[in-house]
Amino acid sequence: MILPYEWCKLHYLYRKANNILWERIAVINEAHGWKVAKFYTWEKSTSHSFLIYELSRWPLLLSITAFIFITALVYIIKSDGSLLPNGLLALSSMLVFMFSWMNDLQKESNEGGMTIRVHKSILTGFRIFLFSEVMVFVSCFWANIHFGLIIDNIWIIRFPPKGLVAIFPYAIPLANVLILLYSSLPLQAAQIWINKGVKPGTLECIAQTIACGALFLISQIKEYTNAYFCITDSTYGSAFYCITGLHGLHVTLGVLAFIYLYNNAIVNRSYRDHHLSFNLWAWYWHLVDLVWICLFFIVYTNTLIYE
């Protein structure tokens, strides 16, 4: 029979052996000046393949600031906008905390924490995140369709309401569709270049994607300034600005993320054989493109039916 203190001793020896194993398994390879950490036998050598780091403060801070931002946004929409500075401060804090968290994850990856199982776990978590984003926009689209069909259980035949001039879909909205569709081309090219380890091509293609995203946001702001209605003009105005504004927020986040990846590529933190963050943000950007195409047909072009 093994006594408790013997279990503790065995556990200590087990952890010590794991630390030695980590040092011997990690193969640091210098390729194009980029550090690459590779692990081959860790999953078969131990009972688990996760490198446990110290607790991170970023998830808690990000959750708190996100709650403050959403609360301030609701009050800004309902009131005169007196909480606008608080909302902007919370949004800025969210971005700082998010990219600080990403920076810590990058450092952990450089130290060899990106095992095969950790890689798969991150992919699974990001797929769940993308699915939640899809459901958010599905609910927004359904709300827009519902408002266009029923008001107080009475079927109507006109949405937007009579007297409200909708935005012509085949001008700025269609141009934004083409901009986002084009932005996916250099993004795919950047993925090819980064797989080959060609740094100039990677930087050029990421810069083109950033430029397309910035052009989209400028066009969206111009559309808002030229619109003949605001967010308080019936359910149509509320649904329109909430859906397009939410999408614009996602585009802004994507542009900032690609600026971060561009900076990483400049300082040689992007890897030829290890570029998970780029792949994840590429998935995110493609989802943003697809959502805008759906938004174009559901929110913009359906208004022509009632003209």
What descriptive keywords fit this protein?
mainly alpha, Four Helix Bundle (Hemerythrin (Met), subunit A), two-stranded antiparallel ribbon, 4 strands, globular, disordered N terminus
Q: What's this model, at a glance?
A:
The chain has 307 residues and is mainly alpha-helical. Helices cover 71% and strands 5% of the residues.
General description of the model:
By secondary structure, the protein is mainly alpha-helical. It has 9 helices and 4 strands. A hairpin with a 2-residue loop joins β3 (150-151) and β4.
CATH architecture grouping of the domain at 114-306: Up-down Bundle
Helix-strand pattern:
HEEHHHHEEHHHH
| Rg (C-alpha, Å) | 24 Å
At CATH level 3, the topology of the domain at 114-306 is Four Helix Bundle (Hemerythrin (Met), subunit A)
Question: What's the total helix number?
Answer: 9
Largest β sheet strand count, sense and barrel closure: 2 strands, antiparallel
Structural class: mainly alpha
What is the CATH homologous superfamily assignment of the domain at 114-306? Cytochrome c oxidase, subunit III, four-helix bundle
Shape: globular
What would CATH call the class of the domain at 114-306?
Answer: Mainly Alpha
